[in-house]
Write a structure and sequence with these properties.
The chain is an alpha+beta fold and about 110 residues long. The protein has 4 helices and 3 strands, in the order H-E-E-H-H-E-H. The longest helix has 19 residues.
Length: about 110
């Protein structure tokens, strides 16, 4: 049986990333399928992008995107973003990143501790 979700678990790095993953699609009028948030480090979220158009858009509107993300993040997580870094990527890298996210989500919900 899966545990009841709490915003802070034994996977604090994933908890922080999960806040971004839940909020990321809400920032755009069309699904940003060519992008994938993959890591949160201090006040920076790292996003993979396989589209030059999405990369340019994110860089151009970074300040507004950061403000919108911060407004959507659960305060209990203690995450306040200052910047978004975009890494040019490939479809394979985005696919693998999504698989890693699924694995971390399942491990956390099964109560695995490190």
């Amino acid at each position: 049986m899966l545990h009841e979700h709490h915003p802070v678990s034994y996977f604090p790095q994933y908890d922080r990333l999960e806040q971004i993953l839940d909020s990321w699609p809400k920032l755009f009028t069309s699904a940003p399928t060519a992008t994938q948030p993959i890591h949160v480090e201090d006040t920076t979220v790292w996003v993979l992008s396989l589209s030059p158009q999405w990369t340019a858009f994110i860089l151009e509107y970074e300040e507004a995107l950061v403000a919108k993300l911060n407004a959507l993040i659960d305060p209990d997580v203690g995450l306040v973003l200052e910047r978004i870094r975009v890494e040019p990527s490939t479809p394979t890298a985005i696919y693998l990143a999504r698989q890693i996210i699924v694995i971390l989500y399942r491990l956390r919900d099964l109560g695995v501790r490190f």
